[in-house]
Design brief:
Number of helices of chain B: 5
Strand content of chain A: under 5%
Oligomer: heterodimer
Largest sheet of chain B: none
Structural class of chain B: mainly alpha
Number of helices of chain A: 19
Order of helices and strands of chain A: HHHHHHHEEHHHHHHHHHHHH
Shape of chain A: globular
Number of domains of chain A: 1
Radius of gyration of chain B: 24 Å
Order of helices and strands of chain B: HHHHH
Largest sheet of chain A: 2 strands, antiparallel
Number of domains of chain B: 2
Helix content of chain A: over 70%
Number of strands of chain A: 2
Largest interface: A-B, 63 and 66 residues
Distance between the termini of chain B: 57 Å
Radius of gyration of chain A: 22 Å
Chain lengths: ~500, ~150
């Protein structure tokens, strides 16, 4: 069957009334989560996974619900960027540059609407890119043997810090910690107990959902407490929307360019959404700046937003076809797939095409729902933004705990969650990134399995890991991913910081 | 001062060595020793962690801002409250353990005691009803026995 037919079947799944309902719920929840300060997309999706899981939804419904949450969170992130000048997550940073000045000029509603449209264009184009590129990559990935997979996983860790990564050794430490946690439990291939210390609860290993919620949500609570940030922040008031077709046409070229650049940087390993929005903004500034950028030019809002959302959808290409996520949020999406017993990778496209294409179609539907939802309803979301964190964070913590408790119905999981919260707090203080820890827990079992397969086939000869041209190529990219940021990372970070600082004064 | 990274580097190094050592003592799997076993991957990891932690010791980054001791104590109390909530969940039930936990967190984040208690109580009851009645997810009712 051709791609188009498969996609049409996907739409048949995604357009059923039940799916649309889940897409709608997901879109609303996602926008809220993205908009709330201190939550962020990765956090939000992580909290909702155990809930979707324990409600006994079918895999397709859960996937549709959570992909809409993912898409929604990307939309929501810009609300706090524009109104509070605080990016919900790192990629939203560039949206502050022109979004906040627009809001200060009394054009907050226009800024929000422009970014909603640009986000839609970004996601839409990138999802089309996903439809075209994913099957090709999946076919190519069938050539991978165990040695190539091992190299690919190494590549995923090496490039996770991204080109803007700060200290590559800390990324390495984080990855090692995550992989170590993954080794706890009974070894699948030999039946040997590893690091269980005869505790029955550890035999099955540590559930990564507990780790995700602990590391992200609970440590966030600690940070809020420490910074006394309970009162929330002053935000710019919202005006009445006046947006004409001319305004939309004005930002169209910027959005299209941003979307394409974003998609490319989302697909490439190590680039990610941060670079996507950064490159889109800088290019747009080069192309069309006449001294208005940084002072509230709508194109300066559209370009990074399209880039950001384009990259978010682009990041799904390596995630779905190779099982290797490129960013924190896609890592959490991978966690969702694994907990639904869906193993992403080239086989996924052959074994459960209905599921893959259902998700892709759900992305289209979710984005349309979001666009229709966001322009009229932005006022409601803004109202919710004004709930002070001092009430919100405790409630979120409680809901997160309920989700974790519902996985096994045991309080021991909650003790682990608090433990991971402390670990997350300390790691963040020492500036060891959390995403590689999660990724390590997720990829650990597969990575070890492939290493052992490769070594068993070669009878213990380690050179098998770099004996094919493909694996040498992957190792080379991995090495570049580790070394390049050390050379260029500080230069790029300096540039991003300068363009942000330039705005403040 | 660049002491934080050094201290954590040492701690992580100890972890790496202990973890690697424990891995070498795994029992030989049934069927005899092979070229790769359950210990191969963990030993590889301990080497990677050791390299990373040595780097942290040799080239530490600038120190992070650690909160005052009183704040660390407060965070410790918050952890204790969360643990007590988990413990209470199984023994006195969801509503009775969630109410004080949420109220405490709100209070520590700067809400007034009355508003904190109200938030705690209302949230606990709403979530309990929502999850047990609407979403049909069992939460322990505990001694209230509703």
């Amino acid at each position: 069957m051709g791609t188009i037919e498969l996609l049409m079947q996907g739409f048949a799944v995604a357009l059923s009334p039940e799916s649309i309902m889940f897409a709608l719920i997901g879109a609303i929840l996602g926008t809220l989560i993205g908009a709330l300060p201190g939550l962020g997309p990765a956090n939000g999706v992580a909290i909702l996974i155990p809930l979707a899981f324990s409600l006994g939804l079918s895999p397709t419904s859960s996937l549709i619900l959570l992909t809409s949450v993912y898409a929604g969170a990307m939309y929501g992130g810009r609300i706090s960027s524009i109104l509070l000048n605080i990016p919900g997550d790192e990629p939203a940073m560039m949206t502050c540059l022109d979004g906040y000045p627009m809001a200060l000029k009394g054009k907050a509603a226009e800024a929000l609407a422009t970014s909603a449209i640009a986000s839609f264009i970004g996601s839409f184009i990138a999802t089309i890119g996903l439809v075209i590129l994913a099957p090709i990559l999946a076919k190519f990935a069938l050539k991978f043997g165990p040695a190539e997979y091992f190299a690919l996983f190494a590549l995923a860790f090496a490039t996770l810090g991204g080109i803007t990564g700060k200290n590559q050794f800390k990324t390495l430490i984080a990855a090692a910690l995550g992989l170590m946690i993954a080794t706890v439990g009974i070894d699948i291939s030999s039946g040997v107990q590893r690091f269980t210390y005869n505790s029955l609860h550890l035999f099955e290993g540590i559930d990564f959902l507990i780790a995700i919620v602990g590391l992200f949500a609970i440590s966030e609570l600690f940070f809020f407490l420490e910074q006394h940030a309970g009162d929330g922040l002053k935000k710019v008031a919202l005006n009445k929307l006046k947006l004409t077709a001319k305004d939309i046409l004005f930002v169209m070229p910027a959005s299209l360019r941003g979307a394409l650049l974003g998609f490319v940087s989302g697909v490439l390993p190590g680039a990610g959404a941060s670079l996507g929005s950064f490159v889109s903004y800088t290019l747009e500034k080069k192309v069309s700046d006449k001294g208005t950028f940084g002072k509230g030019d709508p194109r300066g809002v559209a370009a990074p937003e399209a880039g950001n959302n384009g990259a978010a959808s682009g990041a799904l290409v390596p995630m779905l076809t190779l099982g290797v996520p490129g960013s924190g949020t896609t890592a959490v999406l991978l966690a969702m797939l694994i907990s639904l017993n869906v193993n992403p990778g080239p086989m996924l496209f052959q074994q459960s095409p209905d599921l893959v294409w259902g998700v892709i179609a759900a992305l289209f539907v979710g984005n349309l729902v979001l666009l229709l939802l966001n322009i009229p309803m932005v006022g409601v979301f803004v109202k919710l933004l004004s709930i002070p964190p001092k009430y919100l964070m405790p409630i979120v913590t409680l809901i997160a705990s309920v989700g974790i408790f519902s996985i096994t119905g045991s309080a021991i999981d909650l003790y682990f969650m608090v433990g991971f919260g402390i670990m997350g707090y300390v790691l963040r203080k020492v500036e060891i990134p959390l995403v590689p820890v999660i990724l390590g827990m997720l990829l650990g079992p597969e990575m070890e399995k492939n290493l052992r397969h490769a070594l068993v086939l070669s009878d213990g000869d380690w050179t098998v890991l770099w004996s094919s041209g493909l694996s040498i190529g992957l190792w080379a990219v991995a090495a570049a991913g580790l070394i390049l940021p050390m050379v260029f990372g500080s230069i790029l970070r300096g540039k991003m910081k300068r363009s942000k600082d330039g705005l403040v004064d | 001062m660049r002491i934080t990274d050094r201290v954590f580097g040492v701690l992580l190094l100890i972890l790496a060595v202990t973890y690697g050592y424990e891995a070498t003592k795994f029992p030989v799997p049934f069927g005899g020793q092979e070229s790769v076993g359950p210990e191969t991957f963990p030993i590889l990891l301990s080497i990677i962690l050791a390299i990373g932690s040595l780097y942290m010791i040799v080239k530490p980054d600038e120190d992070a801002k650690w909160p005052a001791v009183s704040m660390l104590l407060e965070l410790g109390v918050v952890c204790l409250v969360l643990v007590l909530f988990a413990f209470g969940l199984e023994h006195v039930g969801f509503v009775l353990s969630a109410t004080p936990a949420v109220a405490f967190l709100c209070w520590r984040m700067g809400a007034t005691p009355v508003k904190s208690l109200l938030t705690g109580g209302i949230t606990a009851v709403v979530i309990y009803v929502l999850f047990t009645q609407v979403l049909e997810l069992a939460l322990p009712s505990g001694i209230l026995g509703l």
